[in-house]
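Give me structure tokens for this 305-residue protein.
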Amino acid sequence: MNTDKQFTEVEFGQYKVKVPLGGYYDRFRMNPDLDQVAQDTTVGNIDFFRKIPKKQIASRVGLVWAPNFYYKSSNVQLLMLAPIRQLRNKLPQPLEPLQALPGYGLVALTFFHYDVCDNDPYNEVSVAIVVRQPQAKGSHALELFRSMRQRHFYAHVVALPVDTEIARIRGVHGYQLPKWLTEIHVNINTSTIHAHIKDTIGQPDLSLTTTTPKLKKLKPESRISKTTMLHQVDHQWQQTQVLTNTLSFTQKLLPKHVKLIRHGGPLSQLLNELDASTILRLDVVEDAQVVLHLPVPVKIKSSSN
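Here you go.
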């Protein structure tokens, strides 16, 4: 967080929160004039967002403009193997982990940096378990192949700390996601990646360093992916869709020279409890545009193994 910024207090539902003075939330209150956004030299072409009109929607915190737009973002993700038994221990029933190999499922650890977005810049770290699609039956292998081909995965987020108060309030009270406020740094460039998170008393939790594989530039909207989060809101199952328009990225299978240090904070403990070990893939997204929808109800029943 940049402590040199000036802040102003705004209302978000029944909550009051400080946001950067003159920032996107202060100016637009989640309903931006896209012509003004297009004049921001850091965001590039924003035609992707013009196709997704915002609407004022009733939510747990009152009427809000949705979906939420992230005009420029980056992230680094480690996709790791973890024993199915450990994953089931962390998943609420009837969610079922998607098996990648016999007896093993997938855990995604992701460091996000949101450079320009409707609720101002922030960093976020996600620990998520890849799960089966609601109502899915039959082969896990076929479902995994289909998810990879369609670039659409279902996940249950088990931790989602952030480093700004408005991001925490939106996530906790709007989505009932497991967010808390802590210090996070994410630096992704064309040569190296450094990311780390501290625990709530300022001690190191997780740190990630690696070299950046060669990045690929993409035409806008040529690689759109979707993640559907499955979670409970007021004890009812909901799904929240995240749409990503990737503009610059790279992937590395069984990557070498990735240094992930678990210093002992809550995320370190969580990864240990999940027994997440082998890194199957390193994903680096150097530039992407993201759309975060509000939760909507979904029916979830026990799936057939």
